[in-house]
Amino acid sequence: MTNFNVINPYPFVYHFRDPQGVCFSIIKGAKKSLVVDCGYGIFNIREIIEKYIDTPYDVICTHGHMDHSSGAFWFDKVYIPLLDEELYIKHNGVEKRTKNVIDAEKKGLIDESFDKEKYINMPLANYELINNGTIFDLGDMTVEVIPMEGHTKGSIGLFIKEHKLLFTGDAAISMIWMFLEESTDKETYINMLKRVMKIDFTHYITGHLMTVFEKEIFNHYLEVALEATPQNSERVTFQNFERPNTFQYTKKFGDLNIGICYQEPKE
Known about the structure:
- This protein is of the alpha+beta class.
- The protein has one domain (5-263): Metallo-beta-lactamase, Chain A.
- The chain has helices at residues 45-49, 66-69, 85-90, 94-106, 116-120, 186-196, 217-227, and strands spanning 5-10, 13-17, 23-28, 33-36, 57-60, 78-81, 127-130, 135-137, 142-147, 156-160, 165-169, 175-178, 203-206, 212-214, 234-235, 246-253, 256-263.
- It has a six-stranded mixed β-sheet with strand order 8-9-10-11-13-14, with no helix packed on it. It has a five-stranded mixed β-sheet with strand order 1-2-3-4-5, with no helix packed on it.
């Protein structure tokens, strides 16, 4: 498993980070398992996943962005959040796949043996839309789909009630991107954090870091979002993600840097 990092923080969880810096996870149940996100698709993560589980499994994308959904074609079917359907389709088209290849080439992750044309023109993977409140019964635990709008309008989290564990994807993360066209406004994100904090979880896992965080970190996310204004934030831009009136506010909490990138006014 060259260039893939993996941790096993719970007996039933394997959490991976691929060479392009995005994470995916396995929630391993007694009778069924779940795969959370599927990366850019440059690498065959299906081969990796099936080395760790021997049960039937479903694949769920926490949102429609290419770094979490473009690997969908490796699987027979994936679940996509209802409100991110258009985003999923857009991020699995030729334009986005071409950018994925360019990124992989710059990082030296692919060579001439990689079939770029096949990858770029891969048809949209089979998918089924999933609603908030859906519950997956894995035999010895249940996983509930919860709305976590903000980063994208359809972003979801996955909550394991029996273990008080939440998977947030990019919906709650140390540097949240809220300036994108598909993002909500900052107030909607703040209300989401307040609502999710009422759920009885103690720890959570995000979509880009190899760390299990304690719930109290959500307080830092909320504090940063409430404090951020154009007056105390830095005006920023990102290559390939240029948007007007984009600001970044960051605050340090011990060893953690927590930030928010947002657009104000939101278009």
